[in-house]
Design goal:
Order of helices and strands: EHEHEHE
Helix content: 25-40%
CATH architecture: 3-Layer(aba) Sandwich
Strand content: 15-25%
Number of helices: 3
CATH superfamily: Response regulator
Shape: globular
CATH topology: Rossmann fold
Oligomer: single chain
């Protein structure tokens, strides 16, 4: 079992890269996923993560709530969901 590994789920590439770098700089291992399906695959394969941070709106497919339900069901993983705002285009 790896200590302190966070699954970070975000469909915005720039946000994901920035946040993952911030977390890694604090000595925590980060596994990044860009959608719910990828996140669920990570959860199924790893079986253990020490925490989940996920955007709620992950685009097409399941949302962050479903990823959190899966993570909590596997190991009672602490979850933090965040709501991002999409930029409006004119």
């Amino acid at each position: 079992m790896d200590a302190h590994q966070i699954l970070f789920v975000e469909d915005d590439l720039v946000m994901s890269l920035s946040a993952c770098e911030f977390i890694r700089d604090r000595g925590i291992r980060v596994i990044a996923a860009d959608d719910a399906l990828s996140a669920v695959i990570v959860l199924d394969r790893r079986g253990y993560i020490s925490g989940l941070v996920s955007d709620v709106d992950l685009g097409v497919g399941e949302d962050g709530f479903e990823v959190a339900r899966r993570a909590r069901g596997l190991s009672r993983t602490p979850c933090r969901l965040r709501f991002g705002r999409r930029r409006r285009t004119a």
